[in-house]
Write a structure and sequence with these properties.
The protein is built from five helices and five strands; from the N terminus they run βααβαβαββα. By secondary structure, the chain is α/β, with parallel strands linked by helices. The protein binds ligand CA2.
Amino acid sequence: MTKPIFVLNGPNLNLLGQRQPEIYGRETLEDVAQALSELSEELGLSVRCLQSNHEGQLIDWIQQARRDAAGIIINPGAYSHTSVAILDALNAFDGPVLEVHISNIHKREAFRHHSFVSARAEGVIAGFGTEGYLLALRRMATLVAGR
Ligand code: CA2
């Protein structure tokens, strides 16, 4: 059995589907996790979906992924724009990393245009709504198969 893909979500993404549907849509994070789980079976993968509002917890999971995950899909939320510590943790992970943003961060405020994590990610998806997670998982299947 191959190792799971860790799908990590950062601060406030637990509120998905509850507020600001015009930006983030109506699906909850649980809906996303369910859809990812179904797609992962189709792709012959498995996923472990995790969310935290705490930077250190996200870093602990990224470090755990060094041993336990085949790849990481991450939406670091606002930490994308601030966290060198998350970038450092991802740099210590050897597998593929894909970054997802539900909204198009380049169409929003200037402070969202730069992500520290993008320097490490094999690819970045932004502005595809929650469908972006599923697209990232399809791409992850290709990347993992190529290793
Ligand atoms: O577009 C994305 O996925 C973001 O990573 C979401 C972050 C934001 O800080 C990034 O710039 C772009 C914010 C997540 C907040 O999520 C909420 C969802 C529903 C209601 C309130 C917040």
